[in-house]
Every structure is written in C-alpha cells, then in structure tokens.
Amino acid sequence: MLSIYLVLVLTSHLVHALFRIHEHVNVLQPSNYSQYQELVQDKDLVVLHFGSRFCRHSMHLQHVLNDVPSYLNDTLSVVIVFVDCRDPAFTPHCHTHNITKIPTLRFRYYGVMLSAGVEYRGERRSGPIARFISELLQPYTDTVYDAKSLAQVTPEEDHRIVIGFFRHESDPLLTFYRRVSGLFRGECTFVAYVSDFNNNILFAIRDMALGDNVYIGDYTPELILGWFRANCRPLVRRMTLDGAEGMVELGLPLVLLFRRPHSYMNHVSAFAKLVDREIRDLVGFNVTAVHVDGHVFRRALRAVGAPPDVLPAVLVDTLEHTFLLPSYSDLFEKPPGKLRRVILDVLAKRTALEHHDSVFVKLKPSHTRYSFIEKYFMGLKPGKDEL
C-alpha cells in the first residue's frame, strides 16, 4: 500500500511540474472553453498542444514545450496552450479540428487556425520547436518597388505568385496582406508591389499552369481572405515524400499525375487544365488532385504493373484500391469527359478497371501514434508515438 501511495504522490507532483507556467511566455492549461477563448484572444500566435494528461507521450511533450519560451524572443506575442482532448469540455473542440492522433501540435495565427499542413512533425525538442514557431512569425512577403523587380520574382516550385498592389508603405491593407500571407505559407509566394500606379486591381494571382486571376472587389477582409482561400492553393498540388503524409491524412481519394522529372511544367500545365475543365467541382471535396515525380515514386508504378519509364501516367488511389488509367493521351482526345467518367465510376465503385491494393494508404500517419478516438475510448494500449 505504501508503494502505491508513493507512486500516486510522485505522479501528482510530476504532472504539476509539467504544467508549470513559464515566467516570460505563457504556457497554460485552460480549465474550460471560455477560459481557452480568453487565453488565445489577441495573440499573434497560439501554439495548441492537443493531448491528454493520461497520455505519457503528451506529458513528455508538454515538458518539452515548457522550455520552448526560453528559446523565443521576448517581443513575440505567443502563448502555448494545452488542450486536454480527454476532458469533456474540450473533446468537441478536438473533433472540430479533426484531431485524431495525440499528441498533435497546431497553430492559431492572428486568430485563424492554420491548416493541418502546417502541423509540426519534427523533433520533440525545445530548440527545433522554438525555431519552427519563430519561422511562422517571420515576414512572408517580399516587397518590390518597380515593374522590373516584379517581373524578376520567381516562385518556389509549384507555387502561385500572389501580388498585392499598394500605393504607399503605410497602407493599412498592406499590414493585413502581410499577416494573411502567413496563413498560406507553403502554398503561394507573396509579393507586395508598392508604387504610384493607376489601376483598380488590389491583388492578382499568377499561375504558371492556368494563367492569371485578379481581385478587384471590396476591401472587406473576409472577402479578401475568402478569395485567397479559393485561389491560392493550386488545383493540382505537388506531392513529395515529405508532404505525402499530410495529403493522405485528408482521407480523400487521390488523382495522381506521374510526370517525368525534367518535363515539369509541360505535364503539370496540361493536366491542370484537364482537371480544371472536367473535375474542378470534385477537387477538395471528393478527391485531391496531385502530381508527383515519377522517378521518386516509381515503386508505386511498379506496384500496379506500370513501367516506371512510360510517363506521364495517371493513377487513382481511393486509399483502399489503386487504379491505373489505361492511356494518358486518351484523356485529352474528343469527346471530352473521359477523366470525369473514370473518377465518378471509381468513386461509385462501378468501374471495370483492374485494381490493386492501395499504394498510398501506406503513407498515412503511423498507427503507432496515440489515437484518442480509436484507443482512448476503446481502451487499447498506445504504442510509440510520433509528431
């Protein structure tokens, strides 16, 4: 009995120590949702640790997070908040943000939750986490002052270029624009063009595959933000080995273009136009359209019996089965609509195409990471976790 008592006392002290409040930057655990809303209000960045006090992996991560503020610049307006997904007061909040595995770190940037694509998946050490946080608050907008400099802006591979037009540096819309750019980091390259010009364009998006799109609407922040959301992310996104887990984690079937490594824009541009014509209404809701380097992902082609050197090729992976479309060139021949018919037949499970076990389901997050939906509420033991 004495040993049990000592274990309980030590555990209590350990939990208390793990949730101490740092002297400089708040590391807090709200007791209810109203308190949570007060804590995250008016902060530049909120680091949200979705976990549980009953998960040893969450306890370890919280211990690491407690030391993160010592690595941060004191001028940063940052708060680190622990959200207990086992607590009935916060379980709905965890479900709202699709938290299925814990511990998970997410970020609230100037009042807006960043997408799951900005989830931290790196080392579980204070230094790397602090560097990641600092990078999130770095300016994400380049500023140019003449047309020649604007023409020389080169986007990161596969990014669209967003151009904001401003007449002077003190324009309050420029401050808003710079903050908004951080919401779409990793998806667009942002440029602020400050000059005395005569046009009614507020913003333009330059897409190497589909051409340009301009915004000439009202100054309403909600409308501008909605336009960015609709136009910033490429219709056909690039999947890499590093980013594959995040895309697969969305749970949508994948429509994949396997392209040659050195014929990047030709293949992607043609395929993006095809997707735009035939399945734009399905992308983001029923499927995720992506392009991949056929050399890097050659094992996926071999798994479905496709020669890795015969590119481009299109696969549909429902995360249950993988289907290889017979001919890439046939998709572009008249009459149009071939890609759409194939996708709808696959989604309705009425296709006659030969199928194989899903290739890309293997890229889902590891099942050894603690799942509070599948394990906490079913009483199963956790395995080794990962971020």
N-to-C span: 37 Å
Mean pLDDT: 80
Helix content: 25-40%
- Please provide the ordered H/E string of secondary-structure elements: HEHEHEHEEHEHEHEEEHEHEHEHEEHEH
Described by the principal axes of the CA atoms, the overall outline is globular
Strand order of the largest sheet: 11-13-12-14-15-16
Count of alpha and pi helical runs: 13
Assembly classification: single chain
- Strand tally: 16
**Class based on secondary structure composition and strand pairing:** alpha/beta
Low-confidence segments, ≥5 residues, pLDDT <50?
1-24, 370-386
**Beta-strand content estimate:** 15-25%
Q: Kindly provide the radius of gyration, computed on alpha-carbon positions and rounded to a whole number of angstroms.
A: 24 Å
Major sheet size, sense and barrel closure: 6 strands, mixed
Provide key terms for this protein.
single chain, 387 residues, alpha/beta, 5-stranded mixed β-sheet, 16 strands
Overview of the structural elements:
By secondary structure, the chain is α/β, with parallel strands linked by helices. Helices cover 32% and strands 20% of the residues. It contains 13 helices and 16 strands. It has helices spanning 2-18, 33-40, 56-67, 91-96, 126-136, 147-151, 172-183, 221-231, 244-248, 264-278, 298-303, 338-347, 372-376; strands at residues 27-28, 45-51, 78-84, 104-109, 112-113, 141-144, 160-166, 188-194, 203-207, 211-215, 237-238, 254-259, 288-293, 313-317, 321-324, 355-357. The strands form three sheets. The chain has a six-stranded mixed sheet with strand order 11-13-12-14-15-16, covered by helices on one side. A hairpin with a 3-residue loop joins strand 9 and strand 10. The radius of gyration is 24 Å and the shape is globular.
